[in-house]
Amino acid sequence: MIREHQRKWIAAAAIVAAAGIATSLLRPWHGSEAIAGTPAASPPMPVEVAHAVGRTITEWDEFSGRMEAVDRVEIRPRVSGTIDTVNFREGATVKKGDLLFTIDPRPYAAEVARAEAALAAAQVRASHAQAERARAQRLLDDNAISRREYDERINTASETGADVRGAQAALESARLNLGYTRIVAPVSGKVSRAEITVGNLVAAGAASPALTTLVSVSPIYASFDVDEQSYLRFAAPGAGGTRTDLPVYVGLANEEGHPHTGRILAVDNRMDVRSGTVRVRAVFSNDDGHLLPGLYARVKLGGGVEHPAVLVNDRAIGTDQGKKFVLILDKSNKLVYREVELGSAFEGLRVIRVGISAGEEVVVNGLQRVRPGDTVAPKLVNMAYRSELEDRSNLQSRKLASGSDDSSQSVKSKG
User: Fold this and answer.
1) Whole-model pTM?
2) For residue 320, with 0-12 CB atoms within 10 Å meaning exposed, 13-18 middle and 19 or more buried, which class applies?
3) pLDDT average, residue stretch 95-112
4) Which helix (H) or strand (E) holds 173?
5) Which residues contact 18 (CB under 8 A, 6 or more apart)?
6) How far apart are CA 140 and CA 129, in angstroms?
7) Taking CA atoms, which of 74, 117, 324, 386 is between 20 and 30 Å from 136?
8) Which residues contact 301 (CB under 8 A, 6 or more apart)?
9) Are 313 and 349 in contact (CB under 8 A)?
10) pLDDT in tens, 127-173
11) Given phi > 0 = left and psi -120 to 50 = alpha, else beta, which region is 229?
């Protein structure tokens, strides 16, 4: 009886303990389920938006090009000899006809003297032959000379006349060679350094090394490639004017804007099918010599009729598999995807040809953190506004690039 009572008591205790363990296990599960069933709502993502700008503009297209000299001459010797003098300062501006080099003229002066003597001798022989010819004519009239002897004197007179002309040509050639010992500037412009100096022997011919190079300064060309659409819009015949009346503006790499004004001189006769561009050459006055051949040039081309346009900041434009888009804010603060067609740049903004209207609110900062359909917390800014975060980021990048950032220096010192 006692053992049976003990077994019943142990079984009851086990049931109570199991119930307690089950209760303790189930209590936290039900609590976590209650927490998970009521998730906290995430706040809307903050973004900066701006009104799309509507303006009446005169549209321009910008291209990259290079300045080119109108005339570029490699100065080479036309006669062989030793360089006697170098008569210019390297990098100086010279005028057409200015003396640049002198080759030792003495051998060529002697050749001129020899040619003059040869000409004088030929003229004496020719004069004697002409006198003999006249005498033979009189003797022939008196039948005092044979016809054969008469013909020989006529032939001698003709030969000596040809000898005179040959001696004259040889003298002219000798004088030309003597003149070639003075190497002068064929055009006005800026001369380079002297590649061959005094005392060196030079040879004549196109294969000989250049003594120096000379480039003209004013006027000067700017050559650049224009895409097909820009050519059809601005430079093609019938596109609102002739090719030569289009204004062209150029700015160098260190200049603000495009301060140099010129005009189109020529458009190539074919479109390059590989690049889809046509070569255009503009001409600019360069009286002060500020534009140097080979310099990088920012070219602005176009003009034409004023027209209304919609403009946004380039930071508001995203790329989606080759397509350009912007995110528009609707009345309920939700973002709407808009595909757009871009135009040229204008005063720091981008022309939008198709896709949005003036006055619509466009996301200009935070585009990477949101998606179409998201509800956002907008902050209205100016379209040309740059956020403080972006300015700090750009400043930090510039400091890192220049090596002047304090934190980077401290890290290097610790390393």
Assistant:
1) 0.61
2) exposed
3) 96
4) helix 147-180
5) none
6) 16
7) 117
8) 60, 61, 62, 63, 226, 230, 234, 235, 246, 248, 249, 264, 280
9) yes
10) 999 888 888 888 888 788 888 888 888 899 899 999 999 999 999 99
11) alpha
Indicate the residue type of 225: D
Sorted by sequence, the CB contacts under 8 Å of residue 154 that are 6+ apart come out as 133, 136
What is the per-residue pLDDT for 383? 85
Long-range pairs, 20-25, Cβ under 8 A, ≥24: none
In this structure, the dihedral spanned by the alpha carbons of residues 152, 158, 159 and 160, taken in order and rounded to 10 degrees, is: 110
Q: Which two tokens stand for residue 176?
A: 């030309």
Strand 99-103's sheet: what is its strand order? 182-184, 99-103, 81-86, 201-202
- Residue found by looking up tokens 């304090």 in the block: 406
> HSE of 156 in the Cβ direction (CA atoms, 13 Å)?
18
The whole-number pLDDT of residue 152 equals 87
pLDDT digits (tens, 9 = 90+) for 5-23: 556 555 555 555 555 544 4
| Rounded CA separation 171/114 (Å) | 8
All domains in the chain, ordered by first residue = 61-70+217-302 (2.40.30.170), 75-214 (2.40.50.100), 307-398 (2.40.420.20)
Q: Which two tokens stand for residue 106?
A: 């003495």
Element (H, E) at 202: strand 201-202
For the chain, percent helix, then strand, then coil, each to nearest 5?
35, 30, 35
Q: In this predicted structure, what is the pLDDT of residue 361? A: 92
Q: H or E stretch including 55?
A: strand 53-57
What's the one-letter identity of residue 56? T
